[in-house]
Every structure is written in structure tokens, then in C-alpha cells.
Design brief:
Oligomer: single chain
CATH class of the largest domain: Mainly Beta
Distance between the termini: 53 Å
Radius of gyration: 18 Å
Number of helices: 3
Largest sheet: 7 strands, mixed
CATH architecture of the largest domain: 3 Solenoid
Number of strands: 16
Structural class: alpha/beta
Order of helices and strands: HHHEEEEEEEEEEEEEEEE
Length: 189
Amino acid sequence: MLLKMLRKCYHFVVFFAAMPFLIMTRFSKYVYVSELISLVPFRIGEHIRYYFYKNSLASCGENVVINFGTVISYPDTTIGNHIWIGPYNIFGRVDIGDFTLTAQSCHFLSGPHLHGFDDLSTPIMYQLGHSERLKIGPDIWVGANSTVMANIGHGCVVGAGSVVIKDIPPYSVAVGNPARVIRTRNPGV
């Protein structure tokens, strides 16, 4: 009985610790608040981030761990159930499927054409790009230091240090820069 009451109190405290961050999103860019909350350390930081994202993203499932240093740039991001996001990940506009695992320092851009550069008379920083929404998973593993600019199908593994510039078909193992499929996880194919 006492343990149950202590757990309720803990969740109550964590929820209220997340409230100032939720309020800040009304007065500041979402990405800035995400950067700030990414710096809350230890296990309590994981819990505060979970409550923040559960209440501010388009969708955030159950059993989600978002580690230290991870920044989610847009509130229209969706996160499925049973997710482990490693430390220092960066997310653009992304839908993350259930049972997804990412290692440290993975970057999920909003597509491969975020910046225009064709007009030589205009500085690149002033040229418009094109933002896309990525679909990641479900049931995938993305290795450390990977950069993802395209969709990753169901059941895929992306090797550490890979740069995904084209969609990866379901049940593939992809590695390299640019990432290429080296085998399938589905022996029936």
C-alpha cells in the first residue's frame, strides 16, 4: 500500500515538473523547449521528458524512453509504443513505429531536400527547401551515428554510421554511406 502511494506521488511530482516545459511551448519555439528538456539528467529526466512528450506531441505511446540530449524538433511528430531512443538523437518530422530502438547520436531529418541551392544569385540560407515526413518502423534498430533522410520499412536494421538517402524496404539490413541493403531478415524472400 505504501509503495503504491509513493509511486503515485512520484508520478504526480514528475508530471508537475514537466508542466513548466509544457507552458513554455506556448511562448517559445517548440524546438527550443525540446533542447532545454533534453538536458534534464538521470532517470527522473527520462520520466519528465516522457510526460512532456506524452502531453505535447501529436502522439506518444506507452513504455517510451527518450534519453539525455535527444531533441524532437516538431510537435507533429508521432511516437509509437515500446520505444528506446538513445542519447543525443535529433528528430525532424518523423513518425516512429512501435518497438523501435535507436542508438546514440542518430539524426532523423525531414527528408533529403531541406535546403535549396540551385539559384546561384541567392545565398543558400535564403533558398527554400522541401520538408518531408519520414516513416520509421515499426520494429527497427538504427545503429549509432546514423543519418536518416528516407523511410525505413518494418523490421529493418540500419548499421552504425549509415546514411539513409533512399527508402529501405521491409526486413532489410542496410549499411554504409549511402546505405545499401546487404541482406534480408526474411528468409522467405
